[in-house]
Amino acid sequence: MVDGTAGEARHLWHGRFAAGPAEALLAFTASLDVDRRLAADDLTGSRAHVRMLGRAGLLADAEVQAVLGALDVVESEMAAGTFTFVPTDEDIHTAIERRVTEIAGDAGAKLHTGRSRNDQVATALRLFTRREGRVVVDAVVGLQRVLVERAADAGLDAYLPGYTHLQRAQPVLLAHHLLAHFWALTRDVGRLEDALARADVSVLGAGALAGSSLPLDPDGTAADLGFGSRFANSLDAVSDRDFVAEITFALTLVMVHLSRLGEEIVLFTSEEFGFWRLADEYSTGSSMLPQKKNPDIAELARGKAGRVIGNLTGLLATLKGLPLAYNRDLQEDKEPFFDSLDTTVLALLALTGLMETVTFDLDRMRAAADVPAASATDLAEWLVARGTPFREAHAVVGSIVRQAAERGLPLDELVMTDPRLGPDALALLEPGQAVKRRSTPGGAGPEAIGPQLAAAQAWLAART
Ligand code: ARG
Questions:
Q1: Residue of 333, 366, 398, 452 with fewest CB within 10 Å of its CB?
Q2: 124-156+172-212+222-367 domain in CATH 1.20.200.10?
Q3: Which atom of ligand 1 approaches the CA of 334 most closely?
Q4: Is 286 among the catalytic positions?
Q5: Residue 85: half-sphere exposure toward Cβ, Cα within 13 Å
Q6: For residue 36, how far is its CA from the centre of ligand 1 (angstroms)?
Q7: Which range (278-282, 287-291, 331-335, 414-418) has the least confidence?
Q8: Spelled out in words, what is the top-level CATH class assigned to the domain 20-113?
């Protein structure tokens, strides 16, 4: 039996030390509460490593089998909740190795041959990223699917004011508005997948920082683990957390998008706008005000975006001063990363349900969109089509709108009596006209929405 393993609470690195670690050190440096989430990935990495050691002749077949058997026991103990941690388990990696050694004895003590926690941790984190990355992408696509379905159902005569500076600008189809959020999310999916592709590199075999004198086969473990490639440089392999930073950024931008959608939900469901109504299941009440129906999901999407931005900046600050190669600071990568991942997935799922069940008050949206001033651009463009330079047309219509506002006169009367406009231009002020006229490709009107919707549906279909 290897000394300091079975039963005795000793650290895996105890050899160099005459005295055990102080309580305060353990309390400050342990990361088990956070990284126990990497248990399955650590087991996967360890299995590949021990198989490679067997192929390299560093472990006998029987030893490989003993270690693989012990890893299976650890897995089932964890699944059953019977795995017991001991106070010296600094992190999930030491806990698993300790238990494997308890079970497999001397063979277990060979598991760490040619491996450092530095390449072990980075390997587990990359495996985790590959797995969880898919979950986020699927959650983004789930929200996109709902946006496209709601856009398709909204049809050609559901429209609302489009805003610039939060001032009513021109009417837009509801479908167009919903799809605007869809397209932002397509970029998020692209960004996440790009980052996941760059994370798809095996770093097992880099050792502590410099590789090994033992005949390790990093290509073999890379292939065994199904990674796309193997590290080129051992120093880079153990110190690189670009993949964590990149994915955390991609998650942050997802949250920024959700926050912006959330802000619109807050506005549109307010009494002042009254455009959208939340389903009971996706709104909350007030503990004091019985009449309230609150958009808490939307507000928390907005609020939690702040926290995810904080995670990203914290992570980048952790990385910025680190000399090569591994530094214990890197242990601080997991908390922000995991938190951003969890927050983003939960926000996506909640907003997906909200958007699936929100009801649209078509009359309220149309009434807000059909104010005559919403046709101001159309009046100007009507003049342009008849030869007036746009700047002049803009000034003509601008002064009519100003008179309407200042003198309280109905716009249609002013249009009717203006010699440059007159009765022919009046039709432009009819309800629903302005949105119909936004017909250019990618525009907000019914003519343009068909191809846009088809493109969005094709994007989704290509992913399934
Ligand atoms: N829990 C640590 C981490 O996540 C493990 C690595 C410790 N490595 C070391 N050389 N002390 O980074």
A1: 398
A2: yes
A3: 4
A4: yes
A5: 17
A6: 13
A7: 287-291
A8: mainly alpha
